[in-house]
Amino acid sequence: MKISYSWLQEYLDIKVSPKDLAEKIERASVEVDSVTQPSEGLKKIVVGEIVSMEPHPDSDHLNVCQVNIGEDELSQIVCGAPNVETGRKVIVALPGSRIGGNVKIKRSKMRGVVSNGMICALDEIGFEKDVVPKEWADGIYFLEDDAKVGEPVFPYLGMDDYLIDVDVTPNRGDMLSVYGVANDLGAIYAQTPKLTHPNVTEGTTQAADKVTLKVDDSVAPIYKMRLVENVTVQPSPRWLQIKLWNAGVRPINNVVDVTNYILLKYGQPLHAFDFGTIADQTVEARFARPGEKLTTLDEEEHDLDPKDIVIADTEKPIGLAGVMGGFNSEIETHTTTVAIESAVFEPTLIRKTAQRHNLHTSAAQHFERGVNRGGVAEALDAAAQLIAELASGDVLAGIVSGSDYDVKDEVVSVSLKRINHVLGTDLTEANVTAIFKQLGFGVTVADETFTVTVPPRRWDIHIEADLLEEVARIYGYDNLPATLPTGSTTLGVLTEKQHLIRESRRLMEGFGLNQAISYALTTEEKAGQFLMHPSEPTKLSWPMTADHTTTRMNLVSGLLDDVAYNNARHVADVALYEQGRVFYKADADQVRPDEEEHIAGAISGQLVVDNLRNAKANSVDFYQLKGIVERYLQNLAIEGDITFTATDRYPELHPGRTADIAIHGHYVGFIGQVHPSVAESYKINETYVFELNLDALIDMPKQANQYEPISKYPAVTRDIALLVDKTVTNAEILALINKKGGAYLKSVNLFDVYAGKNVPADKQSMAYTLTYQNPTATLTDDEVNQAFNKVETTLQTELNAEVR
């Protein structure tokens, strides 16, 4: 919100520069985005008066004007504006001047006629088009008659003012007004702001006899209205227009402008209805009914939701409460009676309505952050008084209330000891009392405990911590001492889960994979891919984009997006892993999803890039990724056998190159090649992936000590080649060898697989190296042969293997 420096000076004795004032606001209250002066960068733009005018001899739309710019001779300027006329004070950019967009104006000829400068419209000297009043949108701007010819034009347009753009946090909605900022600065500079209060002159006719209010107080706990009759709708005076356009608000007319002015001044959103359009002189505040529609003031039609709050008469909605008024009840030139609404609506409902209809208005912004519930009537009175003055209206007697309650001050207590303990200060009772009084709070002290009475204009203060913050910021954050914490300390250590997660990252990077961090939000389709167990999706009520509507239920889809990003940029060799949380829901009625820590990987192309070898031949395959997963699980020291079981239950994975991963019979994840059709949809090359339930791995029992001393005695190896059915798996053979290999069998390695010539079609040859080693003595051939013979016999008996 842009706050006018000169407007603040109406209420406070400010003796610092605008930039210093902005720095004070930023240090003590809210962030300040910028401090600007609209006239900055502009020069040689003055007040001129059109003395005479004649048509251009070679154009049907240009006029040659003789303009008084305060010099001895008139200045000739060619102007093409449709509204140019003699006797008017106008904005003149002299030759050599700079106007909006840093455009330089030169003396020139227009179709053969000399033009000594330019007669300007507001947008040509830097005004945003959306704040230029409609009556001046398509032509030059006429200044007031009191403007002095030849003087700089900036003071007459408020362009010499400084605008402080405050970025208000959600908890400080009171700063969304000039009064709010003035009150806060008054506390900072120990001044009492000279705020004005309305004094309404009412007629004898009672407003309650003219209008009936029917309000659902669950949506509008406070709803008040005033009526003003016999108004004359016309443009607002210059002072009001200046205040509005400097705040970024377009002036409309004297009635609408007053409601916007009160919003800027008090922070209370108001709305003015054309009372003549309201059926049966009845106004309702209620939830929308099924099938109702409303065309808002921006002339857009909206299908109303039953959760929207509407303002309606007995026939139709006439406004979207707290967001925007209806086009069917807008103030027009023929309006004679105005109904002014001032209310408090439920913030959550307003926020959701604004999001639902994509109408993020100033009124909605204020209601979302809260408004001063104790100032609803005062803002309404101020608006009625000003409309009566500017539109020659008659204010009917009394405020009509549809709903109301007694707004009370908040009472919060805090002790001096607590304040000094938290802030690390040595403030006295007098110091703290003075701070609370500077804030405009009531305060009483008993036994060094402050009982603070907070007025409704500071609706963000409810608890002791809020008072501590107020003391700190008014005392000055820069004045707080820097102290070291006192008390006993404990040695910080990682939990077992944290240690294992960090170890997991170290291992993955050691295997050659780079860490990726993907969005936890994705599309519903991608969230439902690569599921390790059934789950209902968790959808966001108000997603920011269509690509981030649902919480992820897997990590692989995010990694595939990263692979696609790289492949699209001609990076073919991609090896990534991600550790993060996924979100599962057992059923749709579950309010919050369960969170699981997972780790996943995706490799496409070569894991180890070798430019001297054929890239395709050297690309990663199922077994290379399987080796990474197996080694990772072994390095975590999880007790139990690791098994990979072929499966086709994942539709996103290749049915012949996919396996479930289990440890001691407990399912922990999957591994496989991304199905070609899925790879095509992601626009990626051949890719292999895995995903593991890291929480399950953390909970599994671990080997306490993995250290094993290197034996000083030699190892003995035996090779065995088997002819077995093609249905026999390597895992089955390894299981039997390890089972019957004896106590000294150290390792078994498959070194050859052959199927083809000289081997029956339904058979395959598989060769293994068995390594034996006794850590305490040298093995004899008899010991090795005895163990090796048991292996041969078992393989022949149980697998019908033929030893070659």
Helix-strand layout with pairing:
Layout: E1 2-4, H1 5-9, H2 18-28, E2 31-36, E3 43-55, E4 63-68, E5 75-79, E6 89-99, E7 103-104, E8 108-110, E9 113-115, E10 118-120, E11 142-143, H3 154-157, E12 163-167, H4 178-188, E13 202-206, E14 212-215, E15 222-229, H5 238-246, H6 254-266, E16 270-274, E17 282-287, E18 293-295, E19 301-303, E20 309-312, E21 317-320, E22 324-325, E23 338-344, H7 347-356, H8 362-369, H9 376-390, E24 394-397, E25 400-403, E26 410-415, H10 416-423, H11 429-438, E27 442-446, E28 449-454, H12 464-475, H13 496-510, E29 514-515, E30 521-522, H14 524-527, E31 550-551, H15 556-568, E32 574-584, E33 594-604, H16 622-635, E34 642-646, E35 653-663, E36 666-674, H17 676-682, E37 687-693, H18 694-699, E38 716-725, H19 730-740, E39 745-754, E40 763-772, H20 781-799, E41 802-803
Parallel strand pairs: 13-24, 14-17, 29-32
Antiparallel strand pairs: 1-12, 2-12, 3-4, 3-6, 4-5, 6-7, 6-10, 6-11, 8-9, 15-23, 15-24, 15-25, 16-23, 17-20, 18-19, 20-21, 21-22, 26-28, 27-28, 30-31, 32-33, 33-37, 34-35, 35-36, 36-37, 38-40, 38-41, 39-40
Domain TRNA-binding: 39-154
Cofactor: Mg(2+)
Subcellular location: Cytoplasm
